[in-house]
Amino acid sequence: MKKETILIVSLIVIFLGTTFMIYPTGSPGGKTGSPGDGGSNCTVCHGGSASTVQNWISSDIPAQGYTPGNTYQISVTGTGSGNKGFEITAEDAANAKVGTFTAGSGSKLTNNNHALTHTTDQSGNPHTWNFTWTAPAAGTGDVTFYAAVVVSKPNINLTSLQISENTSVNVKSISDVDISIKPNPASDIIKLKSEKLIGQALKIYTISGKLIYQGVLTEKRTSVDISSLNKGIYLLKAGEGAGAVTKRFIKN
Description:
Distance between the termini: 76 Å
Radius of gyration: 23 Å
Order of helices and strands: HHEEEEEEEEEEEEEEEEE
Oligomer: single chain
CATH architecture of the largest domain: Sandwich
Number of domains: 2
Strand order of the largest sheet: 1-10-9-4-7-6
Largest sheet: 6 strands, mixed
Strand content: 35-45%
């Protein structure tokens, strides 16, 4: 009887270990299999092997590409029998994290807000997570979404989706820019001058596309305090849509 009990318990442990997820409330982060994550994926914790699958990431980004600063709907779908979870991130050609994820129902931020993961594992077949992503600043170029989807503990599925930047409508050429930044480089204050963009939104992004400042060009001449920024290159965007202009400046 004792041996039978031990055998039953062992079988239950094996069953649970191969069916239920180790992280049912979300990935610890950095496990999408992307180059920026060093290729690390969910097999590190779950074991098993990773397979590449197609079309598990979808979006409403148009064929001509994303418009910098616009927000889009993104979906990750897992197919198969068993409990499911995921992690997704977005990277540029240099493998830097770009854009801004906003969690939807059943998802949350992870990996220092550079990725999204599930909040509770799901057993539906298929199951889809929906959320939004705000595109990075102009000049970022091609972006690739990378996701790892767990379908029961040992079954890891890696999928990706590459999108391009729509450069035809969103940013004027440098010769047409109707805003000046002085001094550039600057240490504490930048002074902006524009004749036609008064009342337009003003945003500052890191070179990787993270939004760090929002304001409005209230006058022909507007000053912005950048003393708290780290040294480096930043992107300043004035206006929205086809009338937006984007310029670079350097913080010393």
